[in-house]
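Folds abound. A case:
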Amino acid sequence: MGRKTKRVVTFGEVMMRLSPPGYAKFSQAKSLDIDYGGGEANVAIALAYMGIDASHVTRLPDNLVGRSATQYLRQHWVDTNHILYGDSRMGLYFLEKGAVHRSSEVVYEREDSAFSKLKPEMLKWEDILNEADWFHWTGITPAVSKGAAESCLKAIEVANSMGITVSGDIHSRKSLWKYGLSKQQIIPELVAGTNVVIASTYDMYDIFGIGKSNSDFQTSSIALQKKFPIIQKVVDKDREVLSASHNRIKGKMWNGKEFLTTPFYDVTHIIDRVGTGDAYAGGLIYGLINYKEDKEALNYAAAACALKHTVEGDANMVSEDEVTSLVNGSGSGHIKR
């Protein structure tokens, strides 16, 4: 019998998340809640909850903390067979959740983590990507270290040679690029092998010099696709921030033929905004795998993103039925019996 579901492989650092309980400030906290997350791992978890065969590739410290992070991924149905172990330090981030007019704040401690010491020869991508249908990366991974960037490039090259679809969320953080190379030097080579790109007009301007920081999305996307003909779709979302607790979001896509958008989702009571972009990416991948029409895939991605705002932690732990229910207009929140 053939495989029943598509296989998606994601690659990136897994960090320990430490945050005060509820909406307390650090100055009030007497304990910290532990969670685990990372952009690409969040995508894998979201896809696993939707029934996709998801595998995450990373390097964790060879100690109890690293094994605990692996257990967390397994608990959420993600394949961990290709995780490497070495060194002793795990990347951390500290989150103080905002509410109403008070913004959330994040502090990273990622230097010298086990993942940052990754070397491309440590990973056998031909074996890892065997029978995979999709490979996903983000602009965070190549920012962590030169070895991580080289490993990501190797994965993309192997995926291209094997005919595997590649997606990349190129949003990155300037503060992470500390090893002597910039995103403008590294990310273009990665995008040159990527079929589905998640990027804002600012990203396209900042990284590739396309348009202006506030250019029209469709115009910038057309220029990006012309620069990198391998790109089939350029995708992003619009977010209106009314407060830390109330956002409005919608999806948008240029697919090489037409510009598509979704209606706004009004998220009036945000529980946890962290990981919502990853939820959007996970929903997009699921939609593009399972729907014939790009419009359907985009609607699914936007609904998945909206639902993540109601889920505590980094990852979107909602089912395919929950997402399609929201797409179809059932978002009342009534108890299901």
